[in-house]
């Protein structure tokens, strides 16, 4: 199944240069899609594991013809490229 339309992607960062991390992620997403628009950046408290820095959050809308698995693979690759390390659910993250 291929997508042929708009996809919304949520982004969040609360380690190091969070705003720079979001900008880097959005730039990388634009390279793998027909980038359409991104939201403003919003700051929120962490959920779950609450003794961590506040999150900087954004969302973007892209156009893509990738199937869901290809898109997921591409987005996980961007996370990896930007240095994301998965430790536990709701853990601090670069992106």
Oligomer: single chain
Round the Cα radius of gyration to an integer and report it: 14 Å
CATH topology term: Alpha-Beta Plaits
Instruction: Give a count of the beta strands, DSSP E runs of length 2 or more.
Output: 4
Shape: globular
Mean model confidence by pLDDT: 94
Alpha plus pi helix count: 2
Name of the CATH architecture: 2-Layer Sandwich
How many domains, as an integer? 1
> What are the secondary-structure elements, in order, as H or E?
EHEEEH
Low-confidence stretches: none
Strand-pairing-aware structural class: alpha+beta
Describe this entry's structure for a reader.
The structure is a single chain. Strands 1, 2, 3 and 4 form a 4-stranded antiparallel β-sheet that branches. The chain has a single domain, classed as Alpha-Beta Plaits, CATH 3.30.70.560. It contains 2 helices and 4 strands. By secondary structure, the chain is α+β, with helices and mostly antiparallel strands. The chain has helices at residues 18-31, 68-81; strands spanning 5-13, 34-38, 42-44, 55-64.
Characteristic terms for this protein:
95 residues; alpha+beta; Alpha-Beta Plaits; four-stranded antiparallel beta sheet; 2 helices; 29% helix
């Amino acid at each position: 199944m291929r997508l042929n339309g708009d996809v919304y992607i949520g982004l969040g960062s609360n380690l190091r240069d969070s705003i720079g991390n979001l900008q880097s992620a959005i730039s990388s997403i634009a390279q793998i899609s027909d980038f359409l628009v991104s939201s403003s950046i919003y700051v929120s408290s962490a959920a779950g594991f609450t003794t961590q820095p506040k999150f900087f959050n954004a969302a973007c809308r892209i156009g893509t013809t990738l199937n869901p698995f290809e898109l997921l693979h591409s987005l996980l690759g961007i996370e990896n490229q930007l240095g994301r390390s998965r430790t536990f659910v709701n853990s601090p993250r670069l992106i």
